[in-house]
Amino acid sequence: MELDSIDMAILRELQDDGRITNVELASRVGISAPPCLRRVRRLEEAGIISGYRAMLDATKLGQEIEAFCLVGLMHQSDAGIKAFAAMTRDWPMVRAAWMMSGETDFILHCVAPDFSSFQQFVLEELTTAENVDTVRSALTIGKVKDEGLVDLS
Prior knowledge:
By secondary structure, the chain is α+β, with helices and mostly antiparallel strands. The protein has helices at about 5-15, 20-30, 35-45, 80-90, 115-125; strands at about 65-75, 95-100, 105-110, 130-140.
């Protein structure tokens, strides 16, 4: 799909504020509301805009621990990778997961109410999961940058 400067402007605005009204969005990108809405729908249908969600402050909701787990699998067969990926979807503490190349097979972004809960997850669920060989975890100290996922400048 070819994207012009108006499409890119729409994407920038929506990435900054997904709750913006279509009228305000149209005003910011310099077009009228009906073609703006058509463009947004076209971007959604093409999968370029894959969804909308609220950004929540985990600590204000009692989730004090944010950590990353680097997981190495014993076997990197297609079936083993797919099985582990499926497990990550069933663990509520795992908020995002990436399959990696190199020494680490997966990186899991975890959010937990406290260290004890995180430790229990790592020791009783993650390290005992089928095909898991190694787990290294890193607790975050503080977030220093939180931008949209795509640089549209």
